[in-house]
Amino acid sequence: MERSTIKKRINKSLQVGFPLLLGAAILVWTYHGFDFAHLWSVFDQGIDYGWMGVSLLFGVLAHVLRGWRWNLALAPLGEFPRRSDSVYAVFVSYAANLVLPRVGEVSRCGILAKYDGVSFARSLGTVVTERLVDSVCILLVTLSTLLVQSSTFARFFHQTGTDGAFFLHLFSTTNFYITLLCLAAMGVLAVWLVRNLTLFGRLRGLLQGIWQGCLSIRHVRRPWLYLIYTIGIWACYFFHFYLTFYCFSFTAHLGWAAGMALFVAGSIAVIVPTPNGAGPWHFAIITLMMMYGIPKEDAGIFALIVHGIQTFLLILLGIYGLVALPLTHPLSTQKK
Questions:
Q1: Distance (Å, whole) CA 303 – CA 265
Q2: Is a pLDDT exceeding 50 seen at residue 263?
């Protein structure tokens, strides 16, 4: 076997294996010493699946709105895919991210290229801009939440070893090592994305098309609708998470302010390259919930159940998208 082939296989194995191992390591670390028998007592007491169902509906709606918003960004480029195809592509992309974090952004552009003849480079550019818009949104939400819940976040940063004085206690907290590991993983992801995107652009000559896609937002014909979709997406994300509080007796009393704080912490945690933020998300949610007086075991069970159900939803939507796309496109109409 050629050395280049072996190298490629090793790289692919690392791309898939590293996020899984990282997430598993943080999960084991976070749940070390947990009394999992408490999980069965929570099921015995009952989970309000009605609220969980409403929460999941908001999760689906967020992805639908993202697909519709994507069409608005593609229109100025002369690309007009079916709205349903854009939604299905978003479904598939989030499921793909469970296998290899951030590969979904590329896969959904490939889907529109296959089924609607959309320029891969231009659509990738719109996705890059979309991520920038999302970053601005989460920044605004974070700043607003920090103003309202500043004392809670101050205690969170202190307990995770990331407050201003953490250098004095560098080796005194286990939580600090988890935080440091997550930050290092985010750095590795950033380097990998920049390196591969640059290489891909150089080999395929796609940088110009990507740049055109990035600038398409300036020429959106209905910017007010783009804004409404953006607000709707993040409102749905919030309710997708917040309504799960009402599924459990020990979190039902938490108000919207606590929901915002936990939502921000979880949104930042999923940036770490693990499947759907598994591990870092649990760590952040458990740590912050304890600030609101939720016992560690209850917080751990909440994180485990909610993350598991929401991840399962992504898998189901991804399967649905993969099945629906070829069924709605006869082979003769698929773009080569």
A1: 13
A2: yes
d(CA 68, CA 81): 10
pLDDT of residue 81: 95
- How far apart CA 59 and CA 289 sit, in angstroms, is 22
Whole-number pLDDT of residue 72: 94
User: What DSSP string runs through 320-334?
Assistant: HHHHHHHHHS-GGGS
Confidence of residue 203 (pLDDT cuts 50, 70, 90): very low
pLDDT tens digits, one per residue of 271-296: 877 888 888 899 889 988 988 889 98
Token duo for residue 89: 């592509």
Q: Specify the 3-state DSSP secondary structure of 255.
A: coil
**More confident of the two residues 19 and 335:** 19
Q: Where are the alpha helices (DSSP H) in the chain?
A: 3-30, 37-45, 49-74, 83-99, 104-116, 120-148, 150-159, 174-204, 207-215, 223-242, 256-269, 280-291, 296-328
Spatial CB neighbours of 312, under 8 Å, sequence gap ≥ 6: none
If 0-12 CB within 10 Å is exposed, 13-18 middle and 19+ buried, where does residue 108 land?
A: buried
CB contact at 8 A, 74 and 123 = yes
CA distances from 207 to 63, 116, 204, 212 (A): 27, 21, 8, 9
Q: If you search the block for the tokens 């480079």, which residue do you land on? A: 121
HEC states along 160-177?
CCCCCCHHHHCCCCHHHH
Rounded CA separation 101/273 (Å): 6
Q: How many residues does the chain have?
A: 336
Mean pLDDT of the chain: 80
* pLDDT over threshold 50, residue 270: yes
- Radius of gyration from C-alpha coordinates of the chain: 21
Window from 16-30, 199-213, 272-286, 320-334 with minimum mean pLDDT: 199-213
Mean pLDDT calculated for residue range 149-173: 54
